[in-house]
Amino acid sequence: MSTPLASPRELAPLVDHTVLRPGAGEGEVERACDEALQHGFAGVCVREAHLALVVRRLAGAAPRPIAVADFPLGAAPAAARAEEARRLAALGAREIDVVFPLPRLAARDHAGALADLSAVVRAAAPAAVKVILETGALSGPEKAAACALALAAGAAFVKTSTGFGPGGATVEDVALLRALAGPAAGVKASGGIRTAADALRMVRAGANRLGTSAGVALVTGSW
């Protein structure tokens, strides 16, 4: 952010309020939508099964309906990933958080990863795409390569983690992604952000979006 945050409440426009736990019920999703409306969060991020409910509940208000794709493994065939992105956009997702095609990265198939992500970005339009790198599972060179490929494919954001992998967001990874992305793309910190103090560290490191299921605790807490 361009100006310092004066209070935790100013975090609200950065928060993607998440309900991604397998087995989450409709009541939990409805509550998350109501909290997003009450506090002015950036959006509500869910799996496909709950997307239609989020679209109805938010009903064109400022918080965006957000859906995850090929989540959390990033291992589906490229055609299936693009089709999922197309379907989510048609259902009303304004942003789609897709996991990087991690098997391609492991195989150093950078051309294949770029083609995969480019197809997802095209299929998702007009929804913006955030690419989840799962930084806790990657080496330094792999993080740099994945970030560069995501941005080359047209991603609007690069994102640290699914929250279901070997590690969550760290200040070091957020700072690295911001340095690699520069000012043109967004950086989303996600995974393990539970308090306002956690969130502030991520914002200071360069994050301009925060994925967390603890959005209310963030904005009503203290530094």
Automatic annotation (TrEMBL):
Keywords of the record: Cytoplasm, Lyase, Schiff base
EC number: 4.1.2.4
Active-site annotation: 97, 159, 188
Mitochondrion keyword on record: no
Catalytic reactions of this protein: 2-deoxy-D-ribose 5-phosphate = D-glyceraldehyde 3-phosphate + acetaldehyde
Subcellular location(s) of the protein: Cytoplasm
Protein function: Catalyzes a reversible aldol reaction between acetaldehyde and D-glyceraldehyde 3-phosphate to generate 2-deoxy-D-ribose 5-phosphate.
Family: Belongs to the DeoC/FbaB aldolase family. DeoC type 1 subfamily.
Protein name: Deoxyribose-phosphate aldolase
